[in-house]
Design a protein that fits this description.
Layout: H1 5-18, H2 26-53, H3 57-60, H4 72-88, H5 91-108, H6 112-129, H7 132-148, H8 152-169, H9 172-188, H10 192-208, H11 212-227
């Protein structure tokens, strides 16, 4: 793999300043290195979150959270990324990083109240930047928050809009994941037959797109639906 162009430019601007006496490009170097650091922090945070979801975080002290401070590294990485993107004026990047801050609070800490305003801000920035993928993620997790709060109609609206965006983007594994959420809402509303139909569609999409992880969620939801 090649060296990131931002590192190469920083090296050139350094040499221009030290050897050529032209320090005018150092601010550009700072901005590009901040952008690079933000990208790296976001990527590292996502890897830690994946470990948490896979059940590995409980042993390494990074991705898991026991309510006593574990998981601090994951949160710090996402917050650092958001700060740096904000510093360089990258609205899209800030919106994505804030989404992950919100997910940390919602999924790792199970703190819906802390997650909601961050997810709403992510939604706002993603809409401003035209970042439909992050927008779909923010809507999904805002829908989850609404479901947990018992506001089923609003939850359904959020998830349906996320599904629409994901279909538009061709993000079909994400569509299947959202359909699972819609099935749980249907179950909560007493619409078992609708839930089963939605899960059938989700299973077809997941199988076609190799989304084995989503398939496990579909089967769990199907068991819940049939038990009602």
């Amino acid at each position: 793999m090649g060296v990131d162009g931002r590192l190469e430019r920083a090296k050139v601007l350094y040499e221009r300043a030290v050897f050529g006496g032209d320090a005018g490009g150092l601010e550009v170097a700072d901005r590009e290195l901040n952008s690079l650091e933000a990208d790296l922090a976001l990527a590292r945070g996502r890897v830690l979150h994946a470990r948490f979801l896979d059940g590995q975080g409980a042993d390494d002290g990074h991705g898991a959270d026991d309510g006593q401070g574990a998981g601090k590294e994951e949160l710090a990485l996402f917050e650092r990324a958001a700060e740096l993107y904000r510093l360089v004026g990258d609205v899209r990047g800030e919106g994505e990083a804030l989404f992950w801050v919100g997910v940390f609070h919602q999924v790792v800490r199970r703190d819906q109240e802390s997650a909601r305003p961050v997810l709403e801000r992510s939604h706002e920035l993603a809409a401003k930047a035209g970042d439909k993928l992050t927008l779909s993620y923010a809507l999904r997790h805002l829908g989850i928050a609404e479901h947990v709060a018992g506001r089923l109609e609003t939850a359904r609206e959020r998830l349906e809009e996320s599904v629409r965006l994901r279909r538009e983007l061709g993000f079909l594994a994400g569509v299947a994941a959202n359909l699972v959420g819609l099935a749980y809402i249907a179950i909560a509303e007493g619409r078992r037959d609708d839930a089963v139909a939605v899960l059938d569609e989700a299973a077809e999409i997941a199988e076609t797109n190799g989304a084995a992880g989503v398939m496990r969620s579909i089967e769990e939801a199907r068991e819940t639906a049939l038990a009602v």
